[in-house]
Amino acid sequence: MPTARDIALIFLSLEALVISLVPLVILSALVYGVFRLTQLVRISLRKAQELAQQAHDYVARASEAVAQPLIKVHATGSQAKTMMRKLTRRA
């Protein structure tokens, strides 16, 4: 009887070992998959970042081109208003 108990204990221990290894194997496979995916996507992400930077530069230039005339008009108006204010105070 003690021999059967020892054999059963060994099999239960082996079962617990195998069950604890399954999550480890799954986690290892996921880590390896993410590593490989990072290597494959790196070039595409770099190209996408360059395109996004080009789009940002284009938008920045366009917004400056649109805003510059308005800023000039506002600055000229402010200069004229300031000059008129200073001229009318001295008189």
What does this structure look like?
With 91 residues, the protein is mainly alpha-helical. It has one domain. Helices cover 98% and strands 0% of the residues. It has 1 helix and no strands. The chain has one helix at 2-90. It starts with a helix and ends with a helix. The mean pLDDT is 90.
Main β-sheet description: none
Average of the residue pLDDT scores: 90
The helix/strand order is: H
The share of residues in extended strands comes to under 5%
Brief description of this entry?
Helices cover 98% and strands 0% of the residues. By secondary structure, it is mostly helical.
SSE arrangement:
Elements: H1 2-90
Question: Key terms for this structure?
Answer:
91 residues, mainly alpha, 1 helix, 0% strand, rod-shaped
